[in-house]
Design a protein that fits this description.
The complex is a heterodimer.
Chain A (H helix, E strand, L loop, with lengths): L2 E3 L4 E5 L4 E3 L2 E3 L5 E7 L6 E6 L5 E3 L5 E5 L4 E6 L8 E9 L4 E4 L3 E6 L1
Parallel strand pairs in A: 2-12
Antiparallel strand pairs in A: 1-4, 3-9, 5-6, 5-10, 7-8, 8-9, 10-11, 10-12
Chain B lengths: L3 E3 L3 E4 L5 E7 L5 E8 L3 E8 L6 E2 L7 E6 L2 E6 L8 E8 L8 E2 L3 E5 L1
Parallel strand pairs in B: 2-11
Antiparallel strand pairs in B: 1-3, 3-8, 4-5, 4-9, 5-6, 7-8, 9-10, 9-11
Classes of the chains: A mainly beta, B mainly beta.
Chain lengths: 113, 113
């Protein structure tokens, strides 16, 4: 079955510390992969996306993600977290023939002072 | 910038009422989507449309219908609202280019009493 797994429901990180949010997918081919962020009361904003090419993708707000085919993973990273990064983060992949997004259940990031 | 607007940010309805959620986009995108978002479940696709008057069921279409009479507008209809339809509803659009991304509206938080 096609699915996305975000194993961490909540993560707490100290401000200034590094961050890694995990994402694994299950799909028969190489999917298009996305990370979205949702601040409280807001819609989803695209952070970055991977379609092909370089497996290390740079996004907005200092985020990056690395596609690892062998691990079926697309983990999101940031070297130094800011308090404004507190939000919910969603990993998703697109079924390339169907343009349908499949979302993970999300990881809520809390940033401590 | 793509703009996706939803008619209401917050909506309170009573059980059995007919509810209309409107979504309008200004980018001439062919594809439009309705998701619902619930804690711990992520985003789940209700319906989508790839052209005017065309619609496809998503993963959880039961209890919902949609209408797309004009390219820029995609409506989600709850024929007879029930309490288990209390949720956040998100609209998204996507151009016809396969490597494009989905753009989301701000969401409508619907409460059914």
């Amino acid at each position: 079955a096609q699915s996305v797994t975000q194993p961490d429901i909540h993560i707490t990180v100290s401000e200034g510390a590094s961050l890694e949010l995990r994402c694994n997918y299950s799909y028969g081919a190489t999917p298009y992969l996305f990370w979205y962020v949702q601040s409280p009361g807001q819609g989803l904003q695209l952070l970055l996306k991977y379609f092909s090419g370089d497996t290390l993708v740079q996004g907005i707000k200092g985020f990056e993600a690395e596609f690892k085919r062998s691990q079926s993973s697309f983990n999101l990273r940031k070297p130094s977290v800011h308090w404004s990064d507190a939000a919910e983060y969603f990993c998703a992949f697109m079924n390339t023939g169907f343009q349908k997004l499949v979302f993970g259940t999300g990881t809520r990031l809390l940033v401590s002072p | 910038d793509v703009k996706v607007t939803q008619s209401s940010r917050y909506l309170v309805k009573r059980t059995g009422e007919k509810v209309f959620l409107e979504c309008v986009q200004d980018m001439d995108h062919e594809n439009m989507f309705w998701y619902r978002q619930d804690p711990g479940l992520g985003l789940r696709l209700i319906y989508f449309s790839y052209d005017v008057k065309m619609k496809e069921k998503g993963d959880i279409p039961e209890g919902y219908s949609v209408s797309r009479e004009k390219k820029e507008r995609f409506s989600l209809i709850l024929e007879s609202a029930s309490t288990n339809q209390t949720s956040m509803y998100l609209c998204a659009t996507l151009s016809g280019v396969s490597t494009d991304t989905q753009y989301f509206g701000p969401g409508t938080r619907l409460t059914v009493l």
